[in-house]
Every structure is written in C-alpha cells, then in structure tokens.
Recover the amino acids of this structure.
C-alpha cells in the first residue's frame, strides 16, 4: 500500500469503488486465503481483514489501476504479518535459504519424459490440490498467483515486493518442485511414467 | 527414402540446455514474451523433442491447476459480514 494519498474520494466514490472494483474479487481472494492458511475460519478472517483495510486505505488506491493486484498485496502482507505466526503451518521458511538451495542445477527437473502430460490430465482434483498444498508457502504463492489467478510477472513482483527476475526464477523452481510431487503421485497411483517401463 | 524424410523432419532428441530452454518455454506459456515468444516457441517445438514434451506437460499442468484448484466455495455470509463491518466502521 502506498503511503501517498493521491486524492480523497467522496463517500459515494468510495462505495462505488468498493462495490464495483473490490467486491467482485471475493472468490479469488478467498481461494488465495484458503490456500495460504488451509483453514476455513482463518481464510474468512484474512479476507475480511483485507477488505476492511482496503476500505480504510481506499484513498491510496488509484482508480484505473489493477484493483485485484492491489487487494492481493494487502492480503499477502496481512498473512505474513499476522496469520503466519498463528496458522497451523510449519515454521516460517527462510526465503534466502530456499532460493539458494533450489538454485542448484541438481534439483532441476530432469527431462519431461519422467512425467507425462497424459498422466497429469488424468489426475484427480485432490491429487493436484495436495501437490500444490505440499509446496513451501513462497513457492505455492507464485503458482497460485500465476497459474490460478493469471497475474503477470510484473503484477506478481508488485504483490510480493520482489524483482521480476526473482519472480521468474522462483516460478521455475516452484514448477520443478510441483512436477516432482506430481511424479510421485503418478508412480504411486500407477499412472504411466517412463521409469516403470 | 522414407528414412531420409523422417530424419529431416525429426526433432533432435537431446536439448543442449534444458534448464534455460524450459525456463524460457515457461515464460512464453505465461504470455510474458508476446509475439516474438510465439516465433521462438514455434521453432523450438518443431526442432527439439525435450522442449516439445516439456511444453505439453507444462500446458497440461496449468490446465489442471486452473480447472481443479480454484473451486474453493466462499462462505455465503462472508460478503454480508464484510459490508456490515464496514457500515459499523463508517
């Protein structure tokens, strides 16, 4: 949220922005919140807090800019500052440690023949969902923002406060990790992978 | 004759730099490289088997993620509660 207040909206304008530009994103906001917290009540509180903040700071929202990205940024910051501590997740993952570790070429996904597009298409929603949920929160977040919500790299950089280059490399690593998980499911469920042939 | 034809149309089976190529393919799939990206993609898909397979796998994963991970039902009363809280705060 920018501290600079660009202008003051009238009460009528505030209501119109809130109803017309903020509220239509409630489904995406809830889905994001749920995938961060894994808890319906926490997700509800997180979305509610985000909307209350968005109304309180509405003067720092510039009309015509991307409201959804603005809201997602507030939600993500609220999650880090308030919910991460109390949510039922494992301890906070150190960004740098994760980035450095997965920066090694050793963990690059070796060849796509290990996992087939056909196997992925046959997978159930639960398997895909569990694979996504099992990723560390920073990797999970970039996949949600990019693949589920369709944000551009530039929007993601703003939402996450990281450079675009980091968005690109974190996404690549996140996808490699996701493919490893999916490969595990594919083998476990008896889907065809080349390793079994 | 047939062999020759097949050879000239075949994709190479090894990619020289999968890490770089796959990251590039992912950026193209994410729509980040615009029209020039489409040209690069066309060439890679025509010439390189690992890139071809990676592209289709990535596409399949994106599709299942979008179709199967965005259906979390929003609690019915949430929007109403938010509006009430904002009325109170006004």
């Amino acid at each position: 949220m920018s501290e600079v207040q660009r202008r003051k909206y009238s009460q009528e304008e505030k209501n119109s922005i809130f109803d017309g530009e903020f509220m239509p994103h409630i489904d995406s906001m809830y889905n994001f919140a749920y995938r961060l917290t894994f808890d319906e009540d926490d997700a509800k509180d997180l979305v509610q807090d985000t909307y209350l903040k968005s109304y309180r700071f509405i003067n720092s929202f510039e009309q015509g800019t991307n409201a959804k990205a603005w809201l997602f940024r507030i939600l993500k910051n609220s999650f880090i500052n308030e919910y991460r501590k109390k949510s039922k997740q494992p301890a906070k993952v150190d960004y740098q440690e994760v980035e450095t570790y997965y920066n090694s070429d050793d963990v690059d996904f070796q060849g796509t023949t290990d996992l087939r597009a056909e196997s992925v298409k046959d997978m159930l929603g639960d398997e895909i969902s569990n694979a996504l949920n099992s990723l560390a929160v920073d990797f999970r977040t970039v996949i949600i923002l990019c693949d589920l919500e369709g944000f551009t790299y530039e929007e993601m950089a703003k939402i996450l406060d990281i450079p675009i280059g980091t968005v690109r490399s974190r996404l690549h690593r996140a996808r490699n990790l996701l493919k490893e998980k999916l490969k595990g499911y594919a083998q476990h469920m008896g889907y065809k992978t080349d390793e079994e042939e | 004759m047939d062999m020759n034809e097949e050879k000239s149309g075949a994709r190479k089976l090894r990619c020289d730099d999968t890490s770089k190529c796959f990251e590039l393919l992912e950026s193209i799939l994410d729509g980040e490289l615009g029209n020039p990206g489409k040209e690069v993609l066309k060439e890679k898909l025509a010439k390189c088997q690992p890139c071809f397979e990676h592209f289709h796998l990535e596409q399949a994963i994106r599709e299942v993620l979008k179709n199967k991970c965005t259906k979390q039902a929003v609690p019915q009363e949430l929007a109403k509660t938010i509006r009430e809280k904002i009325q109170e705060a006004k």
The longest helix of chain B spans residues 49-68. Chain B touches chain A at residues 18-19, 22-23, 26-27, 30-32, 50, 53-54, 56-66, 68-72, 74-75, 78-79, 81-82, 85-86, 89 (CB under 8 Å). Chain B has five helices and no strands.
